[in-house]
Amino acid sequence: MKLLAISNPEFIPDEAEIINSLFREGLVCLHIRKPESNPADFRNLLSKVHADFLDRISIHQHHDLAGEFGIKRLHFTEKERKSVSTEILENLKSGGFLLSTSIHDLSELKILSGLFSYTFFGPVFNSISKSGYQGVLSHDFFIEPEIKKIPIIGLGGINRRNLQQIENMNFDGAAILGTLWENPENAIMSFRELRELVNFINQSET
């Protein structure tokens, strides 16, 4: 099981420093999602991320900044995915970009382009960061292997208490957001706890 992270939707103090520390702790991929951001603030954040870690960053907004920073991971929201042409996706893919997207209904997997390398799906559990944003899955939910067109990453309300459930539900990974950023000063410690738990789960499978 993979462990990914998503940025806080708002800019927070010392965010780049925290991001660099998360990568030093072994974070394999961070999705920077700032839906209300302007390009200047987004660029400023990226400029403070150590160059060695930029290949582990996927950006949700301001895709035009990818070339400036050598970023090769682009995320398309559900709305953007439905408006972008296959030709554009093919060009990005042939240009070496790793593409990801989001779905909120597993039936969408049937129509999802194979040009995407993985997709987020959620909310799995009740959101930590969004009050009233309820999880959509039952406790005994299970993703049948045959419907997995591409890897599916669970998102929403994931913490150390329910991480094993993500594995049991047959997700390919977990994306953490609220657990990291509800107390940014504890983000590194929270990540360490989750990372160790994921390592334990993965070792248990072998």
UniProtKB/TrEMBL annotation:
Entry keywords, A to Z: Thiamine biosynthesis
Pfam family, one: TMP-TENI
Pathway: Cofactor biosynthesis; thiamine diphosphate biosynthesis
Record domain Thiamine phosphate synthase/TenI: where: 5-177
Gene3D superfamilies, per database record: Aldolase class I
Source superkingdom: Bacteria
Database matches in InterPro entries: Aldolase_TIM (IPR013785), ThiamineP_synth_sf (IPR036206), ThiamineP_synth_TenI (IPR022998)
UniProt key word Cell division: no
CDD domains assigned to the protein according to its UniProt record, in alphabetical order: TMP_TenI
Designated name of the protein: Thiamine phosphate synthase
